Amino acid sequence: MQKLTKVVVFCVCLLPFFFLVIRIIQNDLGPDPAQELSKETGEWTLRFLLIVLCVTPLRQISGIATILRHRRMLGLFVLFYASCHFFSWIAFLLGFRWTTIVEEIIERPYITVGFSAYLILLALGITSPRAMVRRLGQNWKKLHRLVYLAAILGVVHLLWILRLDISEAVLYGALVFVLLGYRLIYYLSTNKKIFP
Amino acid sequence: MLIKKPSDIKPSEITPESVYKSRREFMQQGSTLMLGSALAGGLPSIANAQNGSRLKAPAPASASLNRSAPAAWWGDKFDNIQPAPDSEPYFTGEALTPYDDVTQYNNFYEFGMDKRDPYANSGDFQVDPWSVEIAGEVARPGVYTLEDIIKPHELEERIYRLRCVEAWSMVIPWIGFSLADLIKRFEPTSRANYVEFETLVDDETMPAIRSRFAIVRWPYREGLRMDEAMNPLTLMAVGLYGNYLPSQNGAPMRLIVPWKYGFKGIKSIVKINFRETQPNTTWNDLQANEYGFFANVNPAVHHPRWRQDTERRLPQTLFSRRVIETRLFNGYEEQVASMYSGMDLSRNY
Question: What gap in Å lies between CA A86 and CA A109, rounded to an integer?
Answer without folding.
Answer: 16
